[in-house]
Automatic annotation (TrEMBL):
Cross-linked sites for 3'-histidyl-3-tyrosine (His-Tyr): H313-Y336
Catalytic activity: 2 H2O2 = O2 + 2 H2O
GO cellular component terms, semicolon-separated: cytosol
Source organism of the structure: Virgibacillus salarius
Cofactor: heme
E.C. number: 1.11.1.6
SUPFAM superfamilies listed in its UniProt record: Class I glutamine amidotransferase-like (SSF52317), Heme-dependent catalase-like (SSF56634)
Gene Ontology biological process terms from the UniProt entry: hydrogen peroxide catabolic process; response to oxidative stress
Name under which the protein is recorded: Catalase
Active site: H49, N122
Pfam families to which the protein is assigned, alphabetical: Catalase, Catalase-rel, Catalase_C
Annotated ranges, domain Catalase core: 2-389
Span of the signal peptide: none
Similarity comment: family membership: Belongs to the catalase family. HPII subfamily.
Amino acid sequence: MTTEESVKVSNDEDTLKAGIRGPQLLEDFMMREKMTHFDRERIPERVVHARGYAAHGYFQVYESQEKLTTAKFLQDPSVKTPVFLRFSQVAGSRGVNETNRDVRGFATKFYTEEGNFDLVGNNIPVFFIQDGIKFPDLIHAVKPEPHNEIPQGQTAHDTFWDFIANNQESAHMMMWIMSDRTIPRSFRMMEGFGVHTFRFVNKEGTSRFVKFHWKPKLGVHSLIWDEAQKLGGADADYHRRDLWENIEAGNYPEWELGIQVLEEEDEFNFDFDILDSTKIWPEEDVPVQIIGKMTLNKNVDNVFAETEQLALHPGNIVRGIDFTNDPLLQGRLFSYTDTQFYRVGTNFKELPINRPICPVHNNQRDGAARITIDKGQVAYHNNSLANNTPYTVPGSKGGYVTYPSAVEGIKIRATARSFMDHFSQARLFWNSMTKVEREHIIDAFSFELGKVNSISVRQQVVNMLGRISSKLAASVARNVGAEIPDVEASTVTKKSPAVSMANTIFRPDTLRVGVIIGQGFNESVTRAILNQWKAVGLQPVMIAKDLGTVTGENGEKWKVDNSFLTGSPLLYDGLYVVGGDHMGNDFIWKTKSYVVESYNHYKPIGASEEASTIIESLGIDGQPGVLIEQTSELFADEFIKAMTKQRFWARG
C-alpha cells in the first residue's frame, strides 16, 4: 500500500496522534490525502447520508445548566433557540427506499445567540470504527459493489460483511444494526445520539465529559422486517411523508435532550475507554439527565434550498462546549469541513440555511458564490487603517477559549490498549434483549449473511458472532449453512435495560387506524367510536372499495381517504373492520387480505359485530389483540389499549 505519491504506508488503521490517546496532528499527510480524496468521490449528492429529510423547530432548556457549561442556549428556559433537524440514511443514494435496514442520521443545527452548534449524530449511540482514517474503507465496503453497482442502499452483500469480519471493532455496532433499531417506525419515534464524547466547560473553567441523547416523547418504535421490505414498495417515501403530514396536521414531534456527565477524575473508572466511539456509557452506570426539549413545528419551504444545501459539521461548537481526543471525532473535525467546501462551495456558510442568526465579522473574502458584499479596504489582522477591526474578544468577555487539556507523548500511529476489547459490550447488548428482540437479531444476521455469496466470509462472520454469544452464532450458522464455531464467547453477564426497545414509552398519539367501511355502515356507532379514538390522538383513515364517498344506513355520505387499491395494510398501525349492510364478495375478499397482513405483523385488529364473520372465517377471533365490538364505548376503550401496546407477539 502506498500514498498517491507512492510513499509506502506502514499503518492505515490509525491517525497520527500526540500520544496514544492524544489528539490528531495536522501534519498527518496520509490521513489528509485519504480523506480529501474520499470527500470528493461523489457529485453532487452527499457521499453518505444522501437520502435525507428535515424540518424546522425550536429548543428550550428546562433549567439553567450554568454549573456545567457557559453555552448560552443552555441557560435561560424562556429562550426558544431555533433548530433545523435533518434525518437521513447512511448507505443509500438520494433515491433509495426509506424503509431499508440502515443507520439513520439524526443531525441538529442549533442557531444560538453565540453562533451555530451542530449536534451531528445517529439513531444509534455507537459507530462501526474507532478512528476516522478508516471511514473511507467502511463506506467503500457498504456502498454498492463497484463492478455491478448492486445492491443499492443495503448491507446484505459480500464486501460489507467482509469488512465487518476483518474489522471486528464493528461487532458492537452490528448488534445494534441487526436489531430493529435500523428499521424505525417513524423519524418521530427514533432516539438520537451524539455518539462522541464531548466536554462541557463552565465559567470557572472546570471541564466534564459529556454525551448527548435525544429521547422521543412518543417512545422508540420500529417496523418488523417483513413489513419494512413490503413498505418499500407500498410507499418508498414512507418516513418523509409521515413527518411532513404530522407537522402539517399540528402533531409536532418532540424530543427531550439528555446528557450523560462524567467528572474528569472518573475518566479511567470503567472497563472500557470513554473516548471509544464503539462503546456506550451504560445508562445504569452513568444516568441520563434530561435538560430540555426540542419541538419540530414547521416543514421546509424548499427541500433543495434547505435540506440539501444544509452543511453540518461536528466542529461547529459554541463557548462552553469543546472536543475530546476521541479519534473518530478528531477525524470528522477535518473531514466535514473539507467535504462541505467541496460539495456546497467555498461560501456555504453564507447560505440562509447555514448562516448563524448573530452577526458575522471576519476577514474571509471572495471565493465562488460569495453572497456578502464586503465594504472597506482592510481584510487583514492586525491593522491600523480600520482601528484593528474586526477585533478579537478575550475569554472573559465571551470569546471562545479551548479547554487546556494536557497533551503528552510521542508522535505515534497506534491503537490504545484500552480500545482493544470489541466483544464485551456486544455481549451486553445481547444480554439486554427480550426473546422477541433476540429472534429478530438472529433473523437479521441470517438474512444478511444469506445474501453473501462467499462461504468464507459467512464463516468468518459466524466465527465473530461466536465471540459474542454461542447461541447467536449457532443459530445463525444453521440458517446460513456455516459451521458452528468453536471459539470462546464473552462471559459478560451484565445487562443494560435502557438499550432494549421493549422498555420504551407506549402511547396512542398519532398512530393510524385503517377503518374499512362498506355501503350501509352504521354511522352513529362508528362516529362515536372514532370520536373516542381521536380524543386520545389516534388518526382514523377511512378505507373503502372505491375512492369518493360511502353512504351509511341513514344516508350520510362519508369521505373515503384510501381505496383498497391506493391504500395498504402496511400503512396503518392497526385495523378496524366496520363493514356494512352491502358487503359483496370482492369487498370481503379484499378486507380479508388486509386483515391477514395486519395479523401477520402483530398489529391490533378490531371488528364491528356486523363484520365479525370476516374475522371468524379467518380463525383468528380470540387471538391476542383481535377485538370484536360488543358495546361501542367498551370496545373503543379496549381498542385504544391495544393500539397503545402496538404489537402482540404472543399470537399463535
